[in-house]
Amino acid sequence: MRQDVPLPQAYRLLNHGPTVLVSAAHGGRRNLMAAAWAMPLDFDPPKVAVVLDKSTFTRQLIEASGELVLNLPCRAQADMAYTVGSCSGETLDKFEAFNIGSFAGSATGAPLVEGCVAWLECRLLPQPDVQTRYDLFLAEVVAAQADTRAYAQGRWRFGTGPDADPALDKLRTLHHIAGGRFFVTGEQLQARSEVKEVKS
């Protein structure tokens, strides 16, 4: 059910501000952590930004490998997302400890988390001063995939209303508030432009 997302459209996977699970690997170690502050920066080549605290083991792996994956967890993974964001992976393998499945990506050595609804494989764009001062990491998206049940033809498919598919409810992305509380992506609506003629 995974399908490649064209790289110039990769920003659409993050544009609505979901919580992400950041995964990385280096030297035979792997880890993942939750991050609420991630966003798209550019279209082509696609770039992203994510804040990673100095104390995290995932950050150490990213700085060593130069690679990371932004995995988008869904409603069915809320407990797991909160759990991996609440403990350090320096002394344990979170994948093994919490029975989290993973699979190999097509462009990086970082693990992709099973059950998520989208995955962005990224290569770090090193900015040592920015990383040290602001904990802000910039990366280029080199591969992107999405679960076609939740995202297809360039659009998220989180239906609402009487005709909505109830199976899609568990695939809604998460948005962290604080203290383990999340809300899930809700109703979509289509706006209409009132501009009659556009002049440049």
TrEMBL record:
Native species: Azohydromonas caseinilytica
InterPro entries in the cross-refs: Flavin_Rdtase-like_dom, Flavoredoxin, Split_barrel_FMN-bd
Top-level taxonomic group: Bacteria
Coiled coil, from the record: none
Pfam assignment, any one: Flavin_Reduct
Keyword flag Flavoprotein: yes
Protein family per UniProt: Belongs to the flavoredoxin family.
Span of domain Flavin reductase like: 12-153
Cofactor: FMN
Upper classification of the organism: Bacteria, Pseudomonadati, Pseudomonadota, Betaproteobacteria, Burkholderiales
GO molecular function: FMN binding; oxidoreductase activity, acting on the CH-NH group of donors, NAD or NADP as acceptor
Gene3D superfamilies the UniProt entry points to: Electron Transport, Fmn-binding Protein, Chain A
Keywords for this protein: Flavoprotein
UniProt xrefs under PANTHER family: FLAVOREDOXIN (PTHR43567:SF1), FLAVOREDOXIN-RELATED-RELATED (PTHR43567)
Protein name (record): Flavin reductase family protein
Keyword Transmembrane found: no
